[in-house]
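Quick note —
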Amino acid sequence: MKRQNQSSVVEFILLGFSNSPELQEQLFGVFLVVYLVTLLGNAIIIVVISLEQSLHVPMYLFLQNLSVVDVSFSAAIMPEMLVVFSTQKTSISFISCFAQMYFILFFGGTECFLLGAMAYDRFAAICHPLSYPMIMNKWVFMKLVMFSWVSGIMVATVQTTWVFSFPFCGPNEINHLFCETPPVLELACADTFLFEIYAFTGTILIVIVPFVLILLSYIRILFAILKMPSATGRQKAFSTCASHLTSVTLFYGTANMTYLQPKSGYSPETKKLMSLSYSLLTPLLNPLIYSLRNSEMKKALVKLWRRKVDSHPF
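Predicted structure written out below.
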């Protein structure tokens, strides 16, 4: 009988902003542009860092991994969301919903750890510049990158498998824009209290702990920058760290509000907006934050453009 209940729901309905159909029509055009700009911006960073040998250092290789995560994160969410905006309501199969949740958690978890690794890299470079080549050698860099990706896989596998092990036998309308854990969990026909304890604890370990460590790193970095004798050096260090800190604050802040309180008092519309903040704005803004504020990235981009023009003269 339990097996029958588990298989009674074969698809879900994503409601989106169905209460405001005019808003959905406007949002379709806006988010289509957001998606295309996100893909273009992150693709440029990936290509520039791949082709420019001078950028093959930990700081930029971390950024390249972050761009890969952001492109993948957007690809897991945006196509389905655009369908929701264009049709007002859309069905998504049980398997597709599972896959979307898995990749959201996979790339979201990976980004959490990558941002933490990037903070450690900046801490080592600014607070221990003389020993930085030893602290952040190739082997340490590879271990941090592999740890970030493997941790994302583990988080996604455990959480998604657990969520979809619950029976879904009642309403199948997800009052959300995509298959995120909290709104899907609300439809489960079982006691989810134990899972909510796990999810809360997991969020503390995966989101809060790295965030606190990043803040502590930046406190040390701030004191180190203030002690620098060169005004140019201070400005360059502030610029590099401000980019990363802006990205961290945007991603962690909204992710915390979404996952720390799965059954919070926030209205469904507020939850949707918070989800959009960390799932769409961060991948969109990261290329702008890191490239526009970074002179080396801009120089590399100009260099590659000139090389292309010289190799293909009109």
